[in-house]
Specification:
By secondary structure, the protein is mainly α. It is globular, with a radius of gyration of 21 Å. The two termini are 18 Å apart. 57% of the residues lie in helices and 0% in strands. The longest helix has 27 residues. One of its GO terms (molecular function) is oxidoreductase activity, acting on paired donors, with oxidation of a pair of donors resulting in the reduction of molecular oxygen to two molecules of water. InterPro entries: FA_desaturase_dom, Fatty_acid_desaturase. One of its GO terms (biological process) is lipid metabolic process.
Length: 369
Amino acid sequence: MTGLQDRLTPEQVEEFGREMDAIRQRIVADLGQEDVDYIQNVIKTQRTLEVTGRALMYLPPAWPLAVASLSLAKILDNMEIGHNVMHGQYDWTRDPALSSQQFEWDTVAPSENWRHSHNYIHHTYTNILDKDRDIGYGILRMDPAQKWHPYYLGNPVYATLLAFIFQWGVMLHDLEFDRIVRGERKWSEFAEVRAKMVRKAARQIGKDYVLFPLLTGPLAPLTLAGNVTANVTRNLWAFAIIFCGHFPADVESFTEAETEQETRGQWYLRQILGSANITGGKLFHILTGNLSHQIEHHLFPDIPARRYPQIAAEIRGICEKYGLPYNTGPLHKQLFSVAKKIVKLALPGSGGAREPEQPTTLEPELKAA
């Protein structure tokens, strides 16, 4: 693993892992009604905002308020509810409405596809080149170890387009177009994945761009414009928060060989080195789904996200104890850092690809971490 030998001794790595395990065990033991009340209140707020937004669409002078209300509803559904519930953060409640396997969110990406590509692939192989497909989403060059190609001159353009249509990018991510083009996968392998995409996209398009506009009669064009605006607002917000948590300066990546025979302590360490936080107030954190605490989320992805602010200072203190970086900063700083990286990596000479490594497999127990 990159830089491990220079940072910590094997004994320190394992002690670091034990401290992380202890925090996790303490939180799990403390889960209870407050956590249930919190997520249920967020769900009620989201539904109230959505109903309010839909109702205000019937009043043309209130169109900006309708769009704002609907945008906030979609952001909450995407970030604090959908993302976190589908991570299994509330499976312990045994409430079907909070089941990671049954929840379906208000985006075109089918939840079942997303759970595989995100919960399993991304959170098992976080920032491992050629394993974590969230590095560049198969579209962008986001790490200097990715071999440069003239195609990447369009990095800033691709990133901008992805930000506006982010929900569609997340959906299409599961088709692995880049691997199909390289001949590593066959189009026919994705028949079931495509079928789920078509069904989900049809429902979303029918709901936002056909049904709800028609329900407002002569105001249909305004309603259609409002729904498009709300979806784009949600897309831009989700893109900004997710990219600021994964791609600012000093966030590290790894090769498969560097993570061979990875221990649990090393897995925790990789999450610290491969993540970044965003500072802000309570409302800001809620609207990010607490992914503004991306470090804590990568350490404990299946623990209710509302707990991340409670342990952030403790995690940071442990990092300081071991001399480890704790990458954090305000949104504008992290976003500028990401934009700078996107532009820099569009150009040749901005980094060299590492030598190809023989594929390895992480230890099975780490896949559930």
